[in-house]
Amino acid sequence: MPWDREQMAARAAQELQDGTYVNLGIGIPTLVSNYIPEGVEVTLQSENGMLGMGPFPYEGEEDPDLINAGKQTITELPHTSYFDSAMSFGMIRGGKIAMAILGAMEVAENGDLANWMIPKKLVKGMGGAMDLVAGVQRVVVVMDHTNKAGESKLLKACTLPLTGTGVVDRIITNLGVLDVVEGGLKIVECAEGVTEAELRAATEGTIVG
């Protein structure tokens, strides 16, 4: 069986390295905070001005003043700090954030990322995505492998407006994990119950190796 959203988030949490600063994007990436491995200390940064995000609150314990960039209620930690957006983006643009875990609509085989706009559909704007992919040291994308029509979202070239060119390092989908390498995409692992042949068949982009 392919991974569900929670399993994808748990797999993405395995990418976290001890002592690093990490930004979690909107959607499935926000779930990563619930799966940080034991013994790994990371500081989560939200571009709306918060450093040190805790996990989602239990029902009834929400604080409407504590939200992430996706306007979801979150919790604070003893070391949490708050600041304005200018300082937040200064951290991002200054290369202080080690990793961004983001969602996507499309990823190309060369690491191009499209995750902010679908033409003719109402969107809230790019937000911090363009700054994140340009400023962080590593970009991990978490997304469904195909769209609702069953068409691959891992493409030879993106068809939607780009957020960044050649910025994606690793892609985690409901079918498995792939790295962007010279010449295309390399399979790192398949989701439990998914064969390599199934993953290849669901991928339009070039798979090398």
Describe the structure.
With 209 residues, this protein is α/β, with parallel strands linked by helices. The chain has one domain (5-201): Glutaconate Coenzyme A-transferase (3-Layer(aba) Sandwich). It is 15% helix and 24% strand. Strand 6 (106-108) and strand 7 form a beta hairpin. It is globular and about 45 Å long. The two termini are 24 Å apart.
Give the CA-CA distance, first to last residue. 24 Å
Question: Strand-and-helix sequence, N→C?
Answer: HEEEEHEEEHEEEEEH
Number of strands: 12
Morphology call: globular
**Percent in helix:** 10-25%
CATH superfamily name?
Glutaconate Coenzyme A-transferase
Largest sheet: 9 strands, mixed
The CATH architecture category equals 3-Layer(aba) Sandwich
CATH topology: Glutaconate Coenzyme A-transferase
User: How much strand content do the residues show?
Assistant: 15-25%
Return residue spans where pLDDT drops below 50 for at least 5 consecutive residues.
none
CATH domain class name: Alpha Beta
| Integer count of domains | 1
* Helix count, DSSP H or I runs of 4 or more residues: 4
Report the mean per-residue pLDDT as an integer: 92
Order of adjacent strands in the largest pleated sheet? 4-3-2-1-5-8-10-11-12
Radius of gyration, taken over Cα atoms and rounded to an integer in Å: 17 Å
Going by helix content, strand content and strand pairing, the class is alpha/beta
Family: Belongs to the 3-oxoacid CoA-transferase subunit B family.
InterPro entries: 3-oxoacid_CoA-transf_B, CoA_trans_fam_I, NagB/RpiA_transferase-like
Organism: Puniceibacterium sediminis
Keywords: Transferase
